[in-house]
Specification:
- By secondary structure, this protein is mostly beta strands.
- It has two domains: 158 residues, Beta Barrel (Cathepsin D, subunit A, domain 1), CATH 2.40.70.10; 121 residues, Acid Proteases (Cathepsin D, subunit A, domain 1, Beta Barrel).
- It is built from six helices and 26 strands.
- It has a 17-stranded mixed beta sheet that branches. It has a six-stranded mixed barrel with strand order 6-7-12-8-11-10.
- The longest helix has 7 residues.
- The protein is globular.
Length: 330
């Protein structure tokens, strides 16, 4: 690459016309159960209750690639077919900003999933208390989660029948092919980047990958890939460091738990994520709970949403290798 910046976006790109004109945008990110309050499956009479984490079935080697036909929902997010308790497939949105897989109340009613009590979750805007259900099995591609409690969120807030979190794609490489509308799940393979591919290293925190070597106008920046969010969101620390206090417009953010937050909209002339250069990107600014949870309060930080990601031909997220690859051309 010779150190040369490459563009992943088009300078005249706009995404706010429909999603924000109505004054609200849905940002389903960072759904994580609080271990102190997450419920266990209903115990047998006289038995002691215990927290049971999702069990992941071992996958025999070699692991074949799972190529999934992906659809795009009204918010521009990618959805893939998932089977729940052997039924389906159902379209679930992929959300790398969420630690846990969740289901909608509509799917719970359809499958008559058994209640598992209440659960505290960390949504984008705040902590929230929600119902949970017991899921015997959930399969996406060659990956299967078994016997776990899933938070239940309202279909209207979630915007999908379900949402796949990091627990469904951990220990794998997730490739989102926006041109072919496909998702690939495969094992980690160490390889040299192809022509037109830029690799950005990351570090792991609470299951999230925080991209390193990113900056905006010379200011170091923490970047989190959030495929569950339609828009790219920066915290107010980022906005303050950029000395931009006047908002071009305002909107209301609605997270998956139905919590709302006011956001200010602004324009970034140039953003660098490794050697990926993003031009004229619209950003929503808000001090969301997600930034505090990740220890980024007061540090310039950005949730990189689908409005930015889908301008690339492909985005590959390798969780074990802690790297993200941006393919700029098909």
């Amino acid at each position: 690459m010779g150190g040369r910046d490459q563009r992943c976006t088009h300078p005249d790109r706009r995404f706010v016309a429909l999603g924000l004109a109505a004054g609200a945008l849905t940002v389903p990110s960072l759904v994580k159960a609080d271990p102190a309050t997450a419920p266990a499956p209903a115990p047998a009479p006289g038995a002691a209750a215990a927290l049971v984490e999702p069990a992941i079935l071992p996958i025999p080697e070699p692991v074949p690639d799972a190529v999934l036909a992906a659809s795009v929902d009204l918010n521009g997010r990618m959805a893939v077919p998932v089977t729940v308790n052997g039924r389906g497939p159902f379209p679930f949105v992929i959300d790398t900003g969420s630690n846990r897989t969740v289901v909608s109340d509509a799917l719970v009613a359809q499958l008559r999933l058994p209640s598992a009590g209440f659960m505290q979750i960390r949504a984008a805007a705040a902590m929230a208390k929600t119902d949970s259900v017991r899921v015997a099995s959930l399969a996406v591609g060659h990956r299967e989660l078994t016997n776990f409690n899933a938070p239940v969120l309202q279909l209207g807030n979630l915007g999908a029948l379900g949402m796949l979190g990091i627990d469904a794609v951990a220990n794998q490489r997730l490739v989102m092919d926006f041109r072919k509308k496909q998702m690939l799940l495969t094992k980690t393979v160490r390889q040299e980047p192809d022509a037109g591919t830029l690799v950005v290293q990351a570090k792991s925190k609470y299951g999230q990958l925080l991209l390193v070597d990113s900056e905006v106008e010379g200011i170091p920046l923490y970047v989190i890939i959030d495929t569950g969010s339609e828009v790219t969101i920066g915290n107010t620390a980022m906005r303050t460091f950029l000395a931009r206090r006047r908002a071009a417009a305002q909107a209301e953010l609605i997270d998956v738990a139905g919590e709302t937050a006011k956001v200010d909209l602004g324009q970034l002339p140039e953003l660098h994520i490794g050697k990926v250069r993003v031009l004229n990107e619209q950003v929503a600014y808000a001090d969301l709970y997600v930034f505090e949870h990740l220890g980024l309060h007061g540090k310039p930080s950005l949730l990189l949403g689908m409005s930015t990601l889908r301008k690339c031909a492909k985005v590959s997220i390798d969780f074990p290798a802690r790297e993200v690859r941006f393919v700029l051309e098909a």
